[in-house]
Amino acid sequence: MSQILYLHQYFKTPSEAGASRSYFLAKAMVEAGHQVTIITQGDFNKEEVFDGIKVIYLENQYSNKMGVLKRIRAYFQFYFSAKNTAKQLDFDFIYATSTPLLVGWLGRKLAIKRKVQYFFEVRDLWPDFPIQAGVLPFPFSWMLRKMERVIYRDAQKIVTCSKGIYETVCQRTIPGKVLVASNFSPFPKVEIEKDTENFIYFGSLGRYNGIELWRPFLERWKEVGLGAQWYVVGEGAQESLVEQLALEFPFLHLMKPIPRNELLSFIREKNIRYSWVTFSSLPVLQTNSPNKLFDSWQWGLIPIINQHGWMNDWAGENAAVFYHHTNPDQTIQQLLKINFSESELQKFQNGTKKASAYFDSNKSISEVIDAIPLNNNHQHKKCAIISPVHPPYDQRLSQRIPECISSENVVYYLGKGRGLPSISSPWIRMLLFYPWIILWILCHRIQVILLADPEMLPLGILLNKCGFDVVWDVHEDFDEQFQLKGKKSPKLTQGILRLEQILLKLKAKLWVTEKYYSLMLRYRNFSPQYLPNFPSSYPFKLISQKFEKESDQPKFIYVGVINEFRGMPELFGAWERVMEVYPKAELILVGRSTMVIPKSIRHLEGNWLEIAPAISGAWAGISLIKKVNEQTHYPFLSFPTKIGEYARLGLPVVCNRTPIHEEFLKDTGVFVDEITVNQLSERIISFIRQEKERIILKKNALKKKADFQNNSESFSKISELYQI
């Protein structure tokens, strides 16, 4: 087990006022067998132990009442004090949580010096917040942006506390390194009390908590509020504004902070039903994950929110009431309806239950605990995945990256969108990128280079001769791809084959994603490792529950490139016939298209998180492989990634008979013998009509999904294979 150094400047226990997420995460680390030492700030230097957690308090004064310069001074004072203290400690793993960003930088510096891994937890997006607030001008904003990217780059994992933060961080680093461990409330769930009507705001009274936006509501509530009281529990820079509001509105009461574990008793004593969770109008604040929101759901309170984004999604689930300061009457009418309608109150009771179950503390904590490496004696290798062609969200990379990380390699990505610009010509890319890539590898002290594009073969040969370990990762047969794209060139093909043979004879490792690739003559003498390209992208964990129940009307999805090689013309014709029988049936295509798509078929592009709401409830996925290799008679695109993705979502698959379809989809496939309009339309219509068959296929698909989630050996990577 690990000796964990936990860095958190604002650490709080449940007996203190403030967020106690780190306390419960650290407690779970101890229960999992790890030794945990937390470095945080306090009123004076001291050491204490809470539930097996050693906490080192360093004297440092910080408050959101401070001005910008005093805050910066407090940040740096904690940074240097924590750095000096950490030098005297034994640890083999670091968990650093923001804010401020300097804590992440400290975690990185200590990890490099001790040659250990570190996780970086993002609670709030920095430097987005100070930049949008206008308190961080250039060049300081540029410097913090660079710092943020470097912290993300070198962290083994990045833990995000909300869906909004996750989506943003994925655009700034390797998506496979990012996971969501949503914020949570560790307290037991309490039902909404029927005979309550009062309000509470608890937490920081900072400059960006939207306190100035309360006035329109207070003015109208004063007229219709029927005696309801409003308790503001907290402190901060805006206390004077709250005091002023209390003078104008006698039903508003300002109180000192109350420890988190005593707050529920206060809520019950004061007959409180509603909790205000407001922020200023900065866009970045739509991504945050306020502790007061999760505590409100646990304590049987109905939150009143004013942020769009993921929080407003829960207002649509009757788990919160939305407030817009320009239209307070709308919010007031909804509150009065809840107060005087038992059925309306019941809707919100159910909504808060649903939110509480979704943001379960055990689930979030386990996301972190399960990711912490158990064996830190492993010598971590620095591995670079390089692709000037494919962006990091491309399937070939979004599978390999987390797989390599899971084997405790320190993984970097250099490529399109991450250090290399987008250039269409492979010859220009080779001319311009090779010098830059070599310099980058030397500066980052990379030990292992993973290459997957034919134009990288000369570079692989050069690096191999210079003593670097090189992995040639075959995701697709380039000869097949040339045929598919109409770019068949015997000279070019022969040239690539020669370079490939030279690299492999130099003892480069060979990975292949398909069994049949490993049987090809040109790889026979090089001991290829078969590493199946099953989806390991983290978003599937976030969206898979949306596909457990079917939509009311038939819905089918196709994910992937939309062209004639995937049987799209036949599918379009078949869908016309399906619509004649089921006019409300829906077919959604997701991906890049080279064809004109009929108006009756919906076309989407985007990542899984973006498209999930539109395609959720799908009855089945579609996978059609039409083109056959003239030499091997094996279907091109022999393992289309989409069938693994459908399995991760628990979907049956409409497909034609190919070796891989029959092997992988034997109990979840809806098969056609040939890709024709007649066979496709008949099979889809039959699938819709035959409910019993559909239920059996769905059960099988959900079982396959469970196998993925349980990391079953038959469906997922074996991490030992990736010990490179």
Compact overview of the structure:
The protein has 724 residues and is an alpha/beta fold. The chain is built from 27 helices and 27 strands.
Description:
It is a single chain. This protein has 724 residues and is α/β, with parallel strands linked by helices. It is built from 27 helices and 27 strands. The strands form 4 sheets. It has an 8-stranded mixed sheet with strand order 3-4-2-1-5-6-7-8, with helices on both faces. The chain has a 7-stranded parallel sheet with strand order 17-16-15-18-19-20-21. The two termini are 23 Å apart. Mean pLDDT is 84; it is low at 710-724.
List the helices and strands and how they pair.
Blueprint (H helix, E strand, L loop, with lengths): L2 E5 L13 H11 L3 E8 L3 E5 L2 E7 L8 H19 L6 E5 L3 H14 L2 E6 L5 H6 L6 H15 L2 E4 L2 H8 L7 E3 L17 E5 L12 H10 L5 E4 L5 H10 L3 E4 L4 H10 L2 E6 L13 H8 L3 E4 L4 H6 L5 E2 L5 H13 L1 H17 L2 H11 L10 E6 L7 H12 L3 E7 L2 E2 L5 H18 L4 E4 L5 H9 L3 E6 L3 H7 L5 H16 L3 E4 L2 H4 L10 E2 L8 H5 L11 E5 L8 H14 L4 E5 L11 E3 L3 H8 L4 E4 L17 H9 L3 E4 L2 H6 L4 E4 L4 H13 L1 H19 L15
Parallel strand pairs: 1-2, 1-5, 2-4, 5-6, 6-7, 7-8, 9-10, 9-12, 10-11, 12-13, 13-14, 15-16, 15-18, 16-17, 18-19, 19-20, 20-21, 22-23, 22-25, 23-24, 25-26, 26-27
Antiparallel strand pairs: 3-4
Helix pairs in contact: 1-14, 2-3, 3-5, 7-12, 12-13, 17-19, 22-26
Name its key features:
724 residues, alpha/beta, Rossmann fold, 4 domains, 7-stranded parallel beta sheet, 27 helices, 27 strands, globular
Residue ranges: pLDDT <50 for 5 or more in a row?
710-724
Continuous helix count? 27
CATH homologous group name of the largest domain: Glycogen Phosphorylase B
Kindly, what is the distance between the CA atoms of the first and last residues, rounded to a whole number of angstroms? 23 Å
Based on CA inertia axes, which overall geometry fits?
A: globular
**Which CATH top level class of the largest domain fits?**
Alpha Beta
Radius of gyration from CA coordinates: 28 Å
